[in-house]
Amino acid sequence: MKQNRKQYSPDFKARVAMEALKGEEPIAELAIRFEVHPTQITKWKRELVAGAANIFGADPNKKIKDEKGLINQLYQQIGQLKVEKDCSANGFVRTRPVPTSLCSRVAQYDLQRA
Prior knowledge:
With about 110 residues, this protein is mostly helical. The chain is built from 5 helices and no strands. It has 2 domains: about 45 residues; about 50 residues. Helices cover about 70% and strands about 0% of the residues. Helix 1 packs across helix 3 and helix 4 packs across helix 5. The longest helix is centred in the middle third of the chain and has 28 residues. The radius of gyration is 27 Å and the shape is elongated.
């Protein structure tokens, strides 16, 4: 018969990790008191220490901003490729690169149309 794993709430994990950080009791005693494996307590403690920088100043939205910038850049490249495809389908062959300003305007136009 399959046993389900225990899932602990974030509040419980934080409380146990804070007790471990205090260092008043050995981890083995904390494991007995909270009925958790000592390795798990050590892992939660490590995660708490690693994530503490986010509380006091790291920008949690930085990843989102980076992803939005990447998405915009990819849309720009898609627009440029569409223009190149349309031009080659009409028999127009480029001998020199399209100016960057033109590519960005075409990409913005494609974004507005989509």
